[in-house]
Every structure is written in structure tokens, then in C-alpha cells.
Amino acid sequence: MVEKFLKRSSWTDIVISLIFVLFGALLIAKPNETLGAISIILGIVFIAMGVLKLVEYYTSETKEDYLLTIALIAVIFGVIVIFASDAILSLFRIILGIWIIAAGVMDFQTALVWKQVKSPYWTASVLFSLLMMLAGIIILINKDIVLTTMGIIIVIYGILDIIDRIIFMKKIDNYMKD
């Protein structure tokens, strides 16, 4: 049961990493267009959520004030996202850097488990996790990082995470037997 859960969550992680690779490739190929598209899409999503909450507020029999508040905040935030893509880039860079560092730390912990079960793949997992953490730190500390460079780092992160997940899935059977 635990084995199935771990394998299923690894497949989910692989899909997420593939999305990161695709997003990174878009940043490499068309950095400004990608950033603009992300801002517009996110803005529209927030505005749509706000409008839906507003409709819910006016169509419900009991008028819940929190729905009106959520609706207005979502619409305002959506407009800000659409028109402030530079600020969004900074926020996105921070969130992405933290995400990649956290993923590297989790992969590092997994590598230590592989070392305990004397797996020959633990050194590769340690190396991949350290590279992932380094990529996250670079994204966090370098404010002037070019979108293309960010795209390259995201692609590298995605590929390293996919490799790490495949190694994990191949070795989970051995780990579960011990």
C-alpha cells in the first residue's frame, strides 16, 4: 500500500516536473511573451474567481459578507496582476526559488535513506539534490537574473527532478523489501 502511494506520488511529481520543463522552455524561447502571458492568465483567473464569488453573493438567499469581500479582493488582485507583471516576476522568482530549494532538501533526505539501504544510486541523488538547491538559491539571490537564464535553471531543475523520481521509483521495491 505504501509502495503504491509512493509510486503514484512520484508519477505526480514527474508530471509537475514536465510542466516545469515546458514552462522553462517557453521562458528560454520567448521570455517576455511568456511573462506577459502568465500575468494576463493569472489576472483573468483571479478576476473570474471574483466575478463568480460576486454572483454567488447576489444569488444566495443569505448574504454572506465574506463572499463580497473575497470577490472584491480577487478582482482587485487580478487587475494588479495584469498590470504589474514586473512585480509578479519578483514574487514569482521568490516562490519558484523557495519551491526548488524545498524540493532539493526533500530529495536530499531521500538520498540519505538510499545511503542507509546501501543503494549505489544515493550519490547521484545527493548530487542532483544539491544542484537543485543551488539552482533555487541562484534564483533567489540574483534579482537581475535574465528570464532566459531562469528558464534554463527551471528546465535543469525539471530534468533533475524527473531523473531523481525515476531512480526513486525503480528502487522503491528494494527499499520496501528490506
Explain briefly what this protein structure is.
By secondary structure, the chain is an all-alpha fold. About 90% of the residues lie in helices and about 0% in strands.
Verbal overview:
It is a single chain. The longest helix has 32 residues. By secondary structure, the protein is mostly helical. It has one domain. It is globular, with a radius of gyration of 20 Å. It is 89% helix and 0% strand. 23% of the residues are buried. The model has no long low-confidence stretch (mean pLDDT 82).
Low-confidence stretches: none
Q: What is the tally of helical segments?
A: 6
Q: Which structural class do the helices and strands define?
A: mainly alpha
Largest sheet: none
- Whole-angstrom Rg: 20 Å
On the 0 to 100 scale, the average pLDDT is 82
Q: What overall form do the CA principal axes indicate?
A: globular
Strand content: under 5%
The percent range for helix content is over 70%
Order of helices and strands: HHHHHH
Tally of strands: 0
Number of domains: 1
End-to-end Cα distance: 15 Å
List keywords for this structure.
178 residues, mainly alpha, 6 helices, globular
Question: Which secondary structure elements does this structure contain, and how are they paired or packed?
Answer:
Elements lengths: L1 H28 L1 H29 L5 H19 L1 H32 L5 H20 L5 H31 L1
